[in-house]
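Practice problem: predict the structure.
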Amino acid sequence: MPEKKAVPFHNRVQMLRVERGLSRKELAEMVQIHPQTVGFIERRQFNPTIDVCLRLSEVLGVGLDGIFSRYPFQLLPTSKLRPD
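Answer:
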């Protein structure tokens, strides 16, 4: 079986999920996707639709550019973090 290639972008989904104290199952329910899909996104094994990206952005309270990038992330600026 061929090795799966990583999708061509980086994301902070796992960091943001853990920071908010959410399990994969909880985040999946909030975004209305399967919990395995959350894991695939976190491991860069799945290219989510723009709809899923927008729902993740709404649920996590961070703009798309704070979650997804074509390039590896630097430290997250405090302006992107939720105040709570």
